[in-house]
Fold each of these.
Amino acid sequence: MSIVPADQTSAALAPFVVTLGAYDLGPGTVEVHRGLPSSTVSITIPEADSLEIAWHGRPGSGRRLRAVVAGLHLGAAELRQEGCTRGVWLTLSPLGAGALLGLPASALAGHVADLADVAPAMADLPERLAACSSWPQRRALVERTLLTGLARYGENTDRHGLRATLAALSRTTRVQEAAQLLGCSRRHLSTAVRTELGVTPKEYQRLIRFEAARGGLVAAARAGQVSVAAVAAASGFADQAHLTREWRAMAGCTPTEWLRTEGPAARDREPA
């Protein structure tokens, strides 16, 4: 999977789009991927075939959707795409949910939905993407669509307040510390975060720490020097055991199991 960093998107979209990527795993294959817990809203748009998504460890939770929007979630998802395994994948910051889709991230937290239901104005985006002949065309189409959403909803987004709240939670390890930075009570912060994100401040900090560990594991694997203990320390975990327990609870596997099945080395073995 190739990923286009958000700094290569339109400057107007940069505060809202975290990643924008194209994936192409080749025709005639069945790919199952683990959707890890995330502090972003993700949108996956297969080019031709629908996507089956289920929550890990929840039998009967599977749904087949044409294009998937997933909110912030603390558990792992399982995604299966058959046939033409090609499409577009992007993630939005919590700010981006309101500014680009017209609804708070809390409306999607812990849920998956079809893009057409979340943003009816984007209902035909999968078909329009399928008609494009190259990734630059697809990226340009996605950006134009998002800019249209920004023009429609952007003025209704409290960017400054939410951005300050997320920054304070990201810079601290305790909710009380974040509240002090913001000059408010812990109760006020909890209410505000639940209203905007659909998770508690502590849960959001867990997601940030989990994502930091995931990034550290990927970087270490690419460098050929994986030390789970070192990643745990750098990501704010008490020790390696703490990191492993958190990964089992949130991802349904250990860090080393995830690296073996879906880490950089595993990706390098996949058809491009």
Note: The beta strands are 2-5, 17-24, 29-35, 41-46, 51-55, 63-65, 68-70, 77-83, 86-92, 112-114.
Amino acid sequence: MDKSTKQSALHAHAWVGVFLSALLFLVCFSGTLAVFHQEFERWEQPGIPEMNTTDAATVEKAMNAFVEKHPEPTDHLFAVFPTSGIPRLVVENDTVAYFADSNGNLLETEQVPFTKMLVDLHLYLNLPHSWGMILVSALGALICTLIVTGIVAHKRISKDAFKLRRGENAQQYQIDLHNRFGLWAAPFHLIIGVTGTYFGMAGLILVVVAQLYHDGDRDAVVEKIFTPDPVLEQEVAQPQLQKAIAQMNTLAPQHPLLFLTVHEANTPQQFIEIYTQVPGKMIYSENYRFDTAGNYLGTAGYAQGHWGKQLVYAMYRLHFGNFAGIPGKVLYFVLGIMLTALCVTGMEIWLAKKAHPPVLTRAWYSVAWGSVSALALTALFGLFADVSLIMLFWVLMLVNLVLSSAFSQSSKSLWLIIAGSSVLLLVSVYTLYHGAAGFTPAALQLNLPLLAFAAWSVRKGTKTGSRQTPGGVPLVNQS
């Protein structure tokens, strides 16, 4: 490509990234953490008994106990199996959920406010869902734009593909790191951008396709992608979950059970749908359907459906890395950190070129590193206070921004130390609060990495602080 094209791509890349840097960072950072949303759910209630398997009789007993405790009308009933990725048995309706033990006895209610806040931050930026989904999806499209313009603007892709200069010029090292992360992980980042865009734009796509091919009939489009519900007329009765689950040993013996749903609960159209993971397929699940009496009706047909249907049904797993167990999640976490680092290094490169405007530089550090302390303190308050964690998080972010603007000493090193100290405080109080449960695998699987981050952050902040001016603005060679 000619020089003017590369220059135009570079300008587009820079200005899109700068103007939306804070939103892009929050979406990427929260999404990286949300890869472990199931682990965060376990972490929030570490004392729940865990199991690897359960049987049909236990599930039905737990559901019967739940319905007896909550007889209020509901559209759906759910049972989440221990093979779903969280080694716990959960029964719930549309509003409340309970854990159950290996004998089918109900335990405490499911309370995961921090996990819900974190996932909501990634999916909607904590905005009303209809608007938040559109905004986040637009940011997904902009991520794709940044990837393409970044590659186009790169002057020597093949020559510099593995160049990472770590000499005295730290700014050059940061530019190299930004370019290497952007190039090496571009396929993954495109997948994240495209799938993220899809979630918000699916409604618009639905309307367009309906107008073009089905005279505006949206239901006709939905039925081509998602298998319609079976048409049933039965006596209203208690769903025979045990009979339905027992048949899965014959119907799909190699498919781990994810969860089951009782649709149209307590109506003549009621039916049972069991969701199973399909080995060797990227689709979220294949769904097995049964009537109220537990008689097998057939599958939803996703595993053997048209490739386009399978692709749509694979979007969730592609976006969140929900495959290959913990190794897949670790891979997505590392690649997500690279995407988040692109947001951070891109903004810091721009700030360096503008000679680090003091107020803007401090404000950026309060967003990039202050968000860590805001999340840690939000989780900490969530242990004790029944408050809106969404509101609390944004209040803390606002306080960070005000403090960084008001005090000239609020440097990058200070925010790093605050981030590490906040995480250390969270883990310490968490362990004291939960007692022996704080040393279960459900707790340690996150607390140990959090402690490692706290140690790194404090060490990095201390080291960085020695290379900053008294006003908190980095020196020329500051990394």
Note: Confidence is low (pLDDT under 50) at residues 475-479.
